[in-house]
TrEMBL record:
Keywords: Amino-acid biosynthesis, Asparagine biosynthesis, ATP-binding, Glutamine amidotransferase, Ligase, Nucleotide-binding. Gene3D superfamilies: Glutamine Phosphoribosylpyrophosphate, subunit 1, domain 1, HUPs. GO terms for molecular function: asparagine synthase (glutamine-hydrolyzing) activity. This is asparagine synthase (glutamine-hydrolyzing). Its EC number is 6.3.5.4. The gene is asnB. It catalyses: L-aspartate + L-glutamine + ATP + H2O = L-asparagine + L-glutamate + AMP + diphosphate + H(+). Belongs to the asparagine synthetase family. The keyword Nucleotide-binding applies. The keyword Coiled coil does not apply.
Amino acid sequence: MCGIAGFFSTQKDYCKEFPRYDHILNQMKVRLYSRGPDENGTFLAKECGLAHTRLSIRDLKAGSQPMIRQRNGYRYVIIYNGELYNTKELRNELIQRGEQFETTSDTEVVLLSFLYYGTDFVKKLDGIFAFAIFDEFHEKLLLYRDSFGVKPLFYTFVEDTLVFGSEPKALFTYPGCRARVDKKSFQEVFGIGPARIPGSGIFQNVQEVRPGCYLSFSKYGLHEVVYWRLESHPHEDSYEDTIKKTSALLEDSIARQMASDVPICTFLSGGVDSSLVSSVCSRHLQEKGERLTTFSFDFDGNEKYFQANEFQPSQDHPFVEKMVSYLQSDHHYLSCDYETQAAYLKESLIAHDLPCMADIDSSLSYFCHQVSKTHKVVLTGECADEVFGGYPWFHKEKFFQDDMFPWTLDLMPRMELLKDEVREELDLTDFVKNAYEQAVGEIEVLPTENETETRRRQIGYLNIRFFMQTLLNRMDRTSMRWGLEARVPFADRKLVEYVFNIPWEMKAKNGVVKNVLRSSSIGKLPDEILFRKKSPYPKSYHPFYEELLGKKLKEVIQEEQAPILRLIDKEKTLRFIASVKDYGKPWYGQLMAGPQMLAYLWQINEWMNMYQL
């Protein structure tokens, strides 16, 4: 993976001030070094400046960027962040049409596909990506993002200049582009966060290219094109054929995402999702005489303090041991102590440029840091629950009754610590309701579906477009902060398109959660793993961790100039810090309960300080 950044204007001539704008490009590049520590480069033309930092995964010698190709005396330049999984097919297709290649990199395949097929060529791409193409002939810049937003791409305008980058921090190095916030920023942070409305960059006037879209900017203005969207249609396959097709799609997605010129590894939790990915990878590597490396995560003290609850019924370690024995993998058990978990709250904030999933992010950032010391590519089981219906809100009637995001049914924990006047001004209930209604209005329901099935389809769509996006953001920022490329085989476009339309009576046949996934994986995993009850990413239950978070937040709000005191009520917050936290009642998803609220508020204050908001 890589980091990309740049700027474009039809009204300027950057070459007239070459040293100045070349310096700006290098500053933008520096801000993204962690995404691509192996190599970097810049390109500056009259209308356009491009910067790239590279994490070398494919074509290690000849894949340098920015990559330039010429046609009829004009330059076409690409900076690319991503992995293309149908490189071989597209390359052969282009060769048959007379195109000539200078490298074996997927970057060149993307650029030559654009030159041959035109702007809509993106529909042919199978992969995860965010990239920019400068078209000198048409004096145009194009920004592309993959179907599910696995790779990030933010942008803003400074007068007549479009400024873009993989992360917001790159934008703020451009002259005149400052980090600012407005009312909507805090409505999202307190009402939707740590999720974001698709296309929102939280900062004032900062947006993100929406998943499944590309932008075209020229003298004719900025135009957005939706090249892919999730569609509803009747499922016509029998149950038996559905299982067979799902199995084939899963196998194909995992195998294709193993493509790499450096060794790969997998995250292994002992759950069905990561275990299936690890099993397929292990088998393919064994066929080549190689051994898979796997990693699992836990927290110091959890063997003593773990509290089973509705959302986290069991610990991972015993199941990891069974899978390691089954795979015969080179396994590494990683553990995080509560001091480190708290210390990495700042790292995860820097990685996101925004408040995020608190210690859920900070711990993953730590684990990715450890994995990055030996590997550059990891395959994960992320997104399976969103696609196959693994969360409680797909199954329990209480989540069907309210027209709200099912992972945040109760907004009160988000509002009760705000100052009265702030709560009234933000009007979070109305803001979140409007965001919800706009989101469910995007998905078509089938006339033949009853009210329950319609609700399940809506929940499925919301999970893919909102909840899954949050976890993909988390996975990208925590891994790329340390130069580790995380791949997500369950976020495969063909797989998601197919599974989205499988009826619930198949998805949860005989009441089995994620039945289609489990049934399509029979023979690839031990039964005790295959039918293990879902348990999400682990978190610390150490009481000293909660005490440490309370101490950190108390220190913050004792400072008279703490920016968060403009928003939250100090006395209410002190009482909250002193109260006993309920781990079994999350205010976001399955993991963010009382202790995570302490960490989230601390991150909001640190964020406001960091950017002088």
